[in-house]
Each structure stands twice: as structure tokens, then as C-alpha cells.
Write the C-alpha cells for this entry.
Amino acid sequence: MGITALFVAAAAFVPWAHPLAFQPLAGWTTGASGNVSSLYGPAHVRAPKESAAWIARNVRYRDQATADPPDKTLMHLPANGIVVWAVIFQGLSREHWGIVLRLSRATHFSCCEGVPLRGGEYELHGYGPNRAYTVYVRIYFRSPPNAAMRAQAQHALNQLKVPWVRPS
């Protein structure tokens, strides 16, 4: 294998050298899947990868880290509970912009098929650094979020550490 091929192979691996994770935050619990086979990855990638992570407040997380949505956890989400779930995966699908981790930029959806939440789901999506992967982030609230809950959710979003990819 030539030097150029080695650099291309190394660049493709870089996002997966450090799986997606939330940094610890007082009053919250966190978890992550590490790197696993992707449920989202494109057909043209032989063995697509994904990495999921979550951070939760006022609820015990009961699902596998890759559960989308985390229905077992959402069933027990109290009125003041918040769950932030994120995944990165290979492929750019429909993404036209880089991820911006701002709750104020999230799209609100009714949620969820298995567990109705009055507060709903807020979704952010985009591509990661250098378009190396796609990022989805979902924020769940049992009840409509007030300003304090929104601030707490934003503080949790600020703890998400997406893997950086060096420019090629």
C-alpha cells in the first residue's frame, strides 16, 4: 500500500478514534455506545460505523445507547426530566450544513410513537467537521419546557464532544 493510500485510510478512520461522548455534568448521568455497526450508514460503505451517546437529568436511562428513540427511558421521564441523545454515523444523506449545537435552532416534533410526550422532541442535525460524518441530536422533554429547562438542556448540549477531524 502506497503512502497516499495509507493517508486516505487513516483520514477515514479519524472520526472513530474517539467515540462520541458527553462530558460529565453535575446532576446528570451519561452513557455511550462506543463505535458499533451502523443502523444508518450508507449502502456504499462496506461496514459503516456509528457512535451514540446520551445525557439524562431526573431519570434513569434504561435503553441501549443506540436506541432511537429511547422509549424505555422516555416512559419513565418525569415532568422535569430531560434526555439528550446523539449519534454520529458515516454518510452525509440529506445534510447541507454543519451541526450547530443550539437548542434555539432545533426543529420541534411531536413525540414519540411509543411514548407520547407533551414537551415533544427537538432535533438538530448536520454534518461533522470536514463532512466526515453525519450528526443527529434529539432532546426530549416530558412537559413543554420552560426557560430553566431549556437552559439546562443547552448546558447539556454544550457537553457533547463531537470528534474533530483534521483537514486533509
Summary: Helices lie at 3-13, 71-74, 147-157. The beta strands are 21-22, 28-37, 49-57, 82-89, 107-111, 117-127, 134-141, 160-161.
